[in-house]
Amino acid sequence: MERSYRASTTALAGGDAWIHGAAEPLAQARLSQQWLALCMMSLGALGFIYGDVALVWQHLPIEHMPGARPIAYLFALIELVAGIGLLLRQWAKPASALLVAFMLVWTVLLKLPAVIVVPSMEATWLGFGEIAVIFAGAWVLFACHMGEYRGWLRPLTGRRGVRAARVVFALSLPMIGLSHFVYSEQTVALVPSWLPYPLGWAYFTGACSIAACLAVLFGVLPQLAARLEAVMLWIITLLVWVPTVFSAPHDRTGWTALAISAAIACGAWVVADSYRAVPYRSA
Description:
The longest helix is centred in the middle third of the chain and has 26 residues, at about 90-115. It contains ten helices and no strands. By secondary structure, it is an all-alpha fold. The protein has one domain (about 1-275).
């Protein structure tokens, strides 16, 4: 009976290994994991090339801070090592631990202070939400690779960790979606000129992120909602930032924005992959 149950659940998960009996598929050799790894490696490469952090997305809290360049190189090294590790099966577990710790520091130390100091400015929430999506994806990988850990990390690993990461992902989406309404003029400027009704697209994509949040939080077709959000983020990345890079290949801002936007899309993709064992029509 147990063997048949495991066989059926493995089939639902697309043939993935299972984590010590946990109801979550191991994200090994998953395309979402590989792409997130490539995005982190890209950020690391940009850090080494420019000797600086990732502009507004990784902005250090003190302007002209002493030791800013060594910090930038340290960040770049962590991103590069974590990305390479996620591509190697034997190093995926420590790499996921390194990445989730790094993204937690990035979220809490570099993004949360701005939210606390200027809570009425939606831009601070947008920056926090974008990085929190990547953090949620890293947390899913960490929870999956660690399995049902028995020590003090138990609430952060296995099924509990994955569920918590999904909540973080869901709560991050309105921060991104609301920016499309609050900063509609800036959002419209990013909509490709060949698309009709740019303001409508700005509002539509913002509303989609908010709807995806509600769907994941309340379990209404959560896998479908997470996947559609990831697809939408990828479409935005490809339509907005890829042409920007081609039009100005020597502009650092375009390359950094492309890498960050792709990493956010990959974070959502990883979270969506955590639902692989859940049928699309399941709550």
